[in-house]
Amino acid sequence: MNRVQAYLILIVMSLSSLLGSATYAQYKPEHDTLPDNVLLEKQWSLGILIHSNGWGLKFRIGKNRTALRLWMWEVEYSTYKSAKEIRVLNPYFADSKSYIYGKLNSISFIRGGTGRQHILNRKPYWGGVQLSILYFGGISIGIAKPMYLYILHFNSGYTEYDISEEKYNPEIHFTDNIYGRASLLAGVLELNFYPGIYLRSGLEFEFGNKNRRPKALEVGACLDYSPIGVPIMAYNPKQNLFLTVYLSFTFGKRYN
Q1: Which residue range(s) make up the domain with 122?
Q2: Are residues 5 and 89 in the same domain?
Q3: Are 199 and 223 a contacting pair, CB within 8 Å?
């Protein structure tokens, strides 16, 4: 082998090494996913959800018990509106504000509980969809804020009127003397709390190819129970059970 051939072989080997290193460096950040035999034990996630009676926000933290099971804790805030709510306007005033006739309280829930996530199929390292089933349960606190409205007060000849902000009373407030909804903060110092429990079950579809940065869609149902009935609409029974069907999007981080 002469000197020129030796130089050519060294050049080819050097180029091959450089190309291989560049290819690996380019591939690694794009697919930030660990092989199946590497397990990140902890994770957290934030999510927003819409459900059949409102919307909500949630936060979860979890830790692996096995390769396919996680023990998790969650905190969630969720609004709730009755299926009987109808928004109306006073037709005699062009600048009146819309309101929900007959609504006694605005309802929301704060939930805190624990549960388990069972992975049905692991996602391959290059990406795909991972399917899991989730079970949660814990304490649920219903928060009822009384509804305030702007009420019309006419003089004896109905030629002049005053408007005042008052707590809704179905015995004296009707469609002809309600001007519209009051300010959002009206009633916040008169909150009533209804402790109870909740149960949740859902399916999670995790997608993407970044194992450290999971993103997922979750669909499921949540049932709240309060032993003390919650008044929502006037002349309707107080409500003890609250069943909702939800869809949520979450993102988070896995780490050790």
Answers
A1: 36-255
A2: no
A3: yes
